[in-house]
Amino acid sequence: MKTHTVETSVGVFVLIGLLCVAYLTIKLGKMEWFSSDHYYISARFNSVSGLKKGAAVDMAGVQIGRVDSIVLDPTDTVAVVRMKIKRGVPVSDDATASVKTSGLIGDKYIRIEPGGSETLLEDGGQIFQTESAVDLESIVSKYAFGKV
Hints:
Elements: H1 2-28, E1 38-45, E2 56-59, E3 62-73, E4 78-86, E5 96-101, E6 108-113, E7 125-127, E8 129-131, H2 136-144
Parallel strand pairs: 1-7, 2-6, 5-8
Antiparallel strand pairs: 1-4, 2-3, 3-4, 5-6
């Protein structure tokens, strides 16, 4: 009888440990299966050089979301960036999205500058005013070869 109690308590302890590991894996992996507290907006850029899926989306220096996907629109040959924004963060329809670099050679991210419009973007909305990434390689090569 006593061995069944020990085996049962060890089994319960192992089960609780596995559940904790599964929960931490989902949370640290930024997987969101349990709640959908985000909405999606998109923006079209001529160039998103260096921007990757999962990059931060900032407004006023505060992270408000992440880049969900980057695809090429074959008809216009522009990059369409789909962003996952935290619900409750208002983004006006005249906001400006730009691709920025954190630091001199850091990672790329999207910065959203709020506009003055009262109309807010909803799920599936699009930011029309965009600024593409600055290509440092082309600037340096133009300077180095005297084409500035």
